[in-house]
Automatic annotation (TrEMBL):
It catalyses: AMP + ATP = 2 ADP. The gene is LOC112288193. Catalyzes the reversible transfer of the terminal phosphate group between ATP and AMP. Plays an important role in cellular energy homeostasis and in adenine nucleotide metabolism. One of its GO terms (cellular component) is mitochondrion. InterPro entries: Adenyl_kin_sub, Adenylat/UMP-CMP_kin, Adenylat_kinase_CS, Adenylate_kinase_lid-dom, P-loop_NTPase. NCBIfam families: adk, PRK00279.1-2, PRK00279.1-3. The keyword Oxidoreductase does not apply. SUPFAM superfamilies: P-loop containing nucleoside triphosphate hydrolases. This is adenylate kinase. It holds the Pfam family ADK_lid. Residues 158-193 form the Adenylate kinase active site lid domain. PROSITE patterns: ADENYLATE_KINASE. It comes from Physcomitrium patens (Spreading-leaved earth moss). GO terms for molecular function: AMP kinase activity; ATP binding. Keywords: Kinase, Nucleotide-binding, Transferase.
Amino acid sequence: MAAAAANLEDVPNDVLFHELLRRMKCAPKQEKRLILVGPPGCGKGTQSPILKEEHCLCHLATGDMLRAAVAKQTPLGLQAKAAMDQGALVSDDLVVGIIEEALKRPSCSKGFILDGFPRTVVQAQKLDAALEKQGVKVDKVLNFEIEDSVLEERITGRWIHPASGRSYHSKFAPPKVPGRDDITGEPLLQRKDDTVEVLKKRLSSFHEQTTPVIEYYLKKGVVRNIEAAKPANVVTQEIQKAIS
């Protein structure tokens, strides 16, 4: 406790004040535990920050959490690193353990958004068991539904300016000069994952893995289908209705 107090003394006043205001705003919020499911390019990355801010939730991306646990050399992080160093997959139990650790943070007191996990029914069962130990459960699984053909148009039309990160789309946000950055005139590049061939493989794997998980949560009555092809602001409204 003394160490924490000492650390707080070094935190700038504006940061402390901002955090105090945030906690006051979040205090009356209802707890929500959400899982977002959807293929690459469906819009989860657009909607997650909105949900996080509006409902004071923490965003749990398992890949980022694993890397953070390894970097901090937590007991679970060391176990995960040992598995990765041997070229093995990190076990479901380890991933769930890292999620359990994260849920103890004050930032997760009002609930969470879980993205990228669970990918299998076994993982879903282990997650449910871990939450049950804390006396809580998944409230809603938001299933971002969108046709593969729409995703293909969305994703394969994306181009970026590597130096700045500026992004364009050949149809929805084209550069002034085809293939050139608006500011520098330098060539635009397409990410390796944004080709038709790679996308089709990713979508096939996604559908194969995810269908059983959706069926699992359908039986629990917590799945809400979201029409993800609609404009982003309309999707936001649909989500608010689904989780209210």
